[in-house]
Amino acid sequence: MHIRVDSAVTGRRVVMAIKTCLFDMGNVLLYFSHDTMCRNAAAVSGASEDRVRDVLLNSGLQWQLERGEISEREFHEGFERQLEATVEFDALKYAVGDIFRLNQSIVPLLAELKQLGLRLVLLSNTSITHLQFIQDNFDVLNAFDALTTSYQAGVLKPESKIYEDALSKADCAPHECFYTDDIEEYVTAARNFGINAEVYSDTSKTRTVLQALGVIVSS
Fold first, then answer.
1. Residue pLDDT tens, the chain, 219 long
2. Rounded to an integer, what distance in angstroms lies between the CA atom of residue 105 and that of residue 159?
3. Range 34-97 has CATH code 3.90.70
4. What fold characterizes domain 3-32+103-212?
5. Which end of the chain is more exposed for a tag (fewer CB within 10 A), N or C?
6. Strand partners, 6
C-alpha cells in the first residue's frame, strides 16, 4: 500500500511509492579502508604492508571470504600459509575488522525513513568478519529489517543472485525500492532489475533523490 503524507513544503497530499530502501554498507553507512586493513594485519604478523596486501587482496583471499567460499578459520590458515608465519587467530580477526568509521550523516536519515514506515534492507559485499565487527562496535545496522550480504548469498555484486536475494527481503516490487551504493557498476546492476538506484556521494544528495521519488525526508 502506498503511504500518503502531508508535505510541509507544498501543503499537498503526496503519494510515496517507495516502500523499501536498500543501502550498501562500505562507504555509505560506514567508511572503510583496505590500507588500514593491510597496515593492521602487517602489525600483528610482522610482515610488510606490501606483502600483506599481496596475501589479502591481490591473491583473492579477502574476496574468497566475502564470497563465503572459505570460513574465518580457513582465511586465517591461508594467511599464515602464504606468509609462512604464525599469527594469533583473534589478533588477525580484529586487525582485519578494525577498519571502519561511522558515517554520522546517514544515521538521522535512517531514523527518518523508519519513522515513515519504510523497510530497510542492507545489500553489501562483506565478510562475516566485517559484519560481526560492525555489529559489535556500531549501532547503525540495528535500524535494518533484513540483511543481504555477499558471504551469505555466495556471490558478490554485481552478480544477479545477490540482488535477487535483497529483493526477496524487500517485501515489495523492484520499482518500489530505492538503492544507493558508492560504486556505479553496482548501481547500474540494480537499475537493470528495475530498482530506483543512485550512486552515493553524500547524504544530502541521497536526501534530494529520495525527495524526488516522493519520500518526505528533510533537506
1. 233 333 333 344 444 599 999 999 999 999 999 999 999 999 999 999 999 999 999 999 999 999 999 999 999 999 999 999 999 999 999 999 999 999 999 999 999 999 999 999 999 999 999 999 999 999 999 999 999 999 999 999 999 999 999 999 999 999 999 999 999 999 999 999 999 999 999 999 999 999 999 999 998
2. 29
3. no
4. Rossmann fold (3.40.50)
5. N
6. 13
